[in-house]
């Protein structure tokens, strides 16, 4: 990364103005990465550990105040501060919001990952943060996972390289990254209870390599255990993964912490390698561990190792020698804003550009209609702990308006109502004659069916358990009953929502139309029902709240009223229509899985706008693929923007009007139907159990599509540009070698078009002579090449032993079978025009 010497000199000048020696010492210690562990460092740490009593040591391994490791003044350990990530420094006020992990992965730009990391590290130092809780690097297994937007896609090699560089950037600023969630945390559905059943070879080849790269290449200071069980044991109690794989096999020297409230047994977790329970010592505390140590159930050496890791990390990062808060770093950082914009620009993937509609021309486009629920306000990221409050996020409508005004007219309309609007706008009747508006709400004690209270609600609109007082702490059943009287005959769409672990059921005229079972996390749901004009439809909405912090919503709207007529009118008026659809913090988030289908009404919105204007551009805000079957054939342009951070609107405007050439490539396979996904039959828990069997094994994403007759809508690695590229002259040096020798893959990349652009060259390796079943090819290298029109550059990628190896369960190690291998080079998993054989001896 290029060093900005002007910035360094500016910081020297700033420090020179300080008159306080204390401020000089605390604020002018310049950022540096973690120091390597030395024998002298270990001796110092051991001496500190010996100064602590057993009670003090146990106290240290449980967090406090939600985001801190306790201070130990007697040994000079300050209180260590954490912040949620990984899209920005979330916990301590507004900050810069970068593109989500999957959008960053779509750039295939490891240098950009490093730059994002540096900016995150700086922002963390500005707020005195020691541990940034990111990056998230779980593998994208299916589109429904509510946190896919935080992660780096379906391929372990791509995820590992992006993660390692991100970590190096963060840690260069004296801040520890915290890689999460270790491991096989591939859904939010029932996340505290789900049991991921994965064979060891699949774990080693698909789900562990990104974590391995984070440890061995990125040298991450911390790792976070996940909520779920892996092969029957909670992550925090999984000694094989924590002690054997992470600490012994990979040599991890940092702190292994729990996810928040992901510890379930203090003794089991302590023995299984968990070093730090967060957010507090609920289980790993004196009450639990002190008698366990004294009885020999937990050796004191195990406790010492945990304390030693915390102190060693603090020493390596310099936290014992300086104030972590760096007052010379501005909270509003123009450098960070520029990197945030770059992350939004490079991550956008152009999936379809029929008739070369893009790029648009300001000279010929005089009006543009910006339509859709994600067009305004800005949607920088999904929901949950990664949510960043950006200082001034730019919406799609705002970005286009700023670029085009006053020369081009920009019209805007949301196009459809949100579920929350529908909840608030639905008019119910307490009886069939509609003598009174509202639904009758009755609360019962679930165990005895005793009625507690009864009343009438005008709307079921975010009715919160906190309004129910002490009664909410009793297991309840809540019923809303009444009628809905349609004004006209036709199709109606009912919407429901609950959060937490709420269970509910909606009955219309005695028939169940929607149901949510008991599990953690709820996304809004909708269902279609045909109703007759003026015929009261009987409504019964039954809710079983699980806590006093639940929310419920119920509403209905006529299908032909879904689309705002004004949106269609604007689309017809405008030269071009841009439809911004997808998800947001309320529908794609930590804590629940989302739907494969777009939220209710969005398919119809796209169909209506494309019918009104043949020059329609659809953008997707989502953490992965979505169901496109209803509209893809008639949509000329599809651009996947993921969650693009605070500069999403600026980036979109620059891409649509050709100031930036789209260069993003899919880090996932984009299926035509959810039934085509290899996890379709085994993504959710098996009936009557919490078990999720990873029956697809190694064949996740493109590995499955390569061997299957089923083909994706858009393949892994795919992405269009405004220019064109070609690959030539593949060489492999040497073409006969030992697998222990480095092998260089060389090739030329040519820009055959008329515009400057960047191409991502993807290098895959196949092993047709393997003695075990292997994928046809697997990504083992890539490089991003920027080219002017007509320019050719020679590129090289180096392969090593792991590029050819598989996990041998008999020898418990990585093995290369001698024989023929195939090296492929191209621009997606489905387009590899250069292929050459290689013999390994």
What report would you give on this structure?
The protein is of the alpha/beta class and 841 residues long. Helices cover 24% and strands 25% of the residues. The chain is built from 20 helices and 36 strands. The protein has a 6-stranded mixed sheet. Strand 7 and strand 8 (233-234) form a beta hairpin. Helix 6 runs antiparallel to helix 14 (334-347) and helix 7 (156-171) packs parallel to helix 9. Mean pLDDT is 93; it is low at 1-29 and 464-472.
Give a summary of the structure in a few sentences:
By secondary structure, the protein is of the alpha/beta class.
Give the termini separation: 38 Å
* Low-pLDDT regions: 1-29, 464-472
Tell me about the biggest sheet? Answer: 6 strands, mixed
Shape label: globular
How large a portion of the residues is in β-strands, by DSSP E? 15-25%
Structural class: alpha/beta
Compute the number of helices: 20
The proportion of residues forming helix, as a percent range, comes to 10-25%
Total beta-strand segments: 36
Strand order of the largest sheet: 1-2-3-4-6-9
Q: Radius of gyration in whole Å, from Cα?
A: 28 Å
User: What is the average per-residue confidence, as pLDDT, rounded to a whole number?
Assistant: 93
């Amino acid at each position: 990364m290029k060093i900005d010497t002007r910035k360094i000199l500016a910081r020297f000048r700033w420090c020179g103005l300080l008159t306080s020696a204390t401020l000089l010492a605390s604020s002018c210690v310049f950022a540096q990465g973690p120091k390597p562990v030395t024998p002298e460092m270990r001796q110092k740490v051991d001496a500190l550990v010996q100064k602590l009593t057993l009670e003090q040591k146990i106290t240290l391994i449980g967090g406090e105040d939600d985001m801190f490791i306790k201070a130990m003044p007697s040994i000079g350990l300050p209180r260590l501060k954490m912040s949620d990530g990984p899209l920005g420094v979330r916990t301590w006020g507004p900050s810069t919001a970068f593109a989500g992990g999957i959008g960053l992965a779509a750039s295939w730009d490891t240098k950009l990952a490093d730059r994002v990391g540096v900016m995150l590290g700086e922002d963390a130092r500005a707020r005195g943060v020691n541990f940034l809780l990111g990056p998230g690097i779980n593998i994208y297994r299916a589109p429904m996972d509510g946190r896919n937007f935080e992660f780096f896609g379906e391929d372990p090699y791509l995820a590992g390289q992006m993660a390692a560089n991100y970590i190096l950037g963060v840690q260069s600023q004296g801040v520890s990254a915290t890689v999460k969630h270790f491991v096989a945390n591939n859904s939010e559905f029932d996340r505290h209870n789900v049991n991921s059943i994965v064979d060891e070879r699949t774990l080693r080849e698909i789900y562990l390599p990104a974590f391995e790269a984070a440890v061995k290449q990125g040298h991450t200071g911390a790792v976070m255990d996940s909520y779920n069980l892996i092969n029957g044991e909670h992550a925090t109690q999984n000694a094989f993964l924590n002690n054997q794989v992470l600490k012994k096999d990979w040599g991890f020297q940092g702190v292994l912490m729990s996810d928040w409230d992901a510890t379930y047994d203090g003794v089991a977790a302590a023995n299984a390698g968990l070093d730090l329970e967060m957010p507090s010592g609920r289980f790993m505390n004196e009450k639990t561990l002190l008698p366990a140590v004294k009885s020999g159930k937990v050796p004191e050496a195990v406790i010492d190792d945990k304390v030693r890791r915390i102190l060693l990390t603090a020493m390596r990062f310099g936290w014992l020698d300086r104030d972590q808060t760096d007052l010379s770093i501005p909270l509003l950082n123009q450098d960070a804003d520029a990197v945030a914009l770059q992350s939004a620009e490079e991550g956008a993937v152009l999936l379809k550009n029929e008739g070369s509609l893009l790029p648009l021309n300001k000279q010929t486009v005089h009006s543009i209609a910006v339509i859709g629920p994600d067009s305004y306000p800005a949607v920088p990221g999904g929901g949950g702990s990664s949510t960043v409050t950006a200082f001034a996020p730019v919406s799609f409508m705002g970005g286009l308006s700023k670029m085009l005004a006053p020369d081009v007219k920009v019209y805007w309309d949301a196009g459809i109502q949100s579920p929350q609007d529908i909840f608030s706008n639905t008019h119910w009747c307490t009886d069939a004659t509609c003598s009174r508006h509202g639904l009758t709400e009755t609360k019962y004690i679930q165990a005895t069916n005793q009625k507690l209270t009864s009343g009438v609600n005008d709307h079921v609109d975010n009715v919160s358990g906190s309004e129910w007082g002490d009664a909410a702490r009793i297991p309840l059943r809540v019923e809303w009953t009444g009628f809905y009287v349609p004004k006209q005959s036709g199709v109606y769409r009912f919407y429901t929502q609950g959060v937490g672990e709420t269970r509910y059921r909606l009955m219309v005229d005695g028939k169940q139309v929607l149901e949510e079972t008991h599990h953690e996390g709820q996304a809004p749901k909708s269902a279609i029902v045909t109703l007759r004009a003026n015929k009261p439809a009987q409504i019964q909405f039954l809710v079983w709240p699980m806590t006093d912090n639940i929310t419920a919503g119920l509403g209905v709207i006529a299908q032909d009223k879904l689309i705002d007529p004004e949106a269609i009118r604007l689309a017809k008026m405008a030269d071009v229509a841009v439809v911004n659809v997808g998800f947001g913090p309320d529908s794609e988030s930590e804590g629940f899985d989302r739907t494969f289908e777009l939220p209710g009404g969005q398919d119809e919105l796209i169909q209506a706008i494309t019918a009104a204007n043949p020059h329609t551009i659809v953008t997707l805000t989502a953490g992965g693929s979505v169901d496109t079957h209803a509209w893809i054939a008639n949509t000329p342009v599809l651009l996947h923007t993921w969650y693009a951070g605070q500069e999403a609107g600026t980036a979109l405007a620059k891409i649509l009007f050709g100031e930036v050439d789209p260069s993003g490539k899919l880090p996932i396979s984009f299926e035509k139907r959810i039934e085509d996904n290899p996890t379709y039959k085994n993504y959710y828990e098996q009936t009557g159990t919490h078990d999720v069997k990873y029956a697809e094994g190694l064949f996740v994403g493109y590995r499955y599509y390569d061997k299957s007759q089923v083909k994706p809508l858009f393949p892994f690695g795919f992405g269009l540009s405004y220019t064109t590229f070609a690959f030539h002259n593949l060489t492999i040096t040497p073409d006969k070698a030992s697998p222990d020798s480095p092998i260089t893959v060389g090739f030329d990349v040519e820009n055959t078009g008329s515009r400057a652009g960047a191409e991502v060259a993807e290098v895959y390796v196949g092993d047709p002579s393997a003695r075990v079943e292997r994928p046809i090819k697997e990504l083992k290298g890539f490089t991003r090449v920027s080219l002017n029109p007509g320019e050719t550059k020679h590129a090289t990628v180096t392969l090593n032993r792991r590029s050819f190896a598989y996990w041998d369960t008999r020898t418990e190690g990585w093995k290369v079978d001698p024989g023929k291998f195939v090296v492929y080079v191209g621009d997606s998993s489905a387009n590899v025009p250069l292929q050459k054989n290689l013999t390994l001896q």
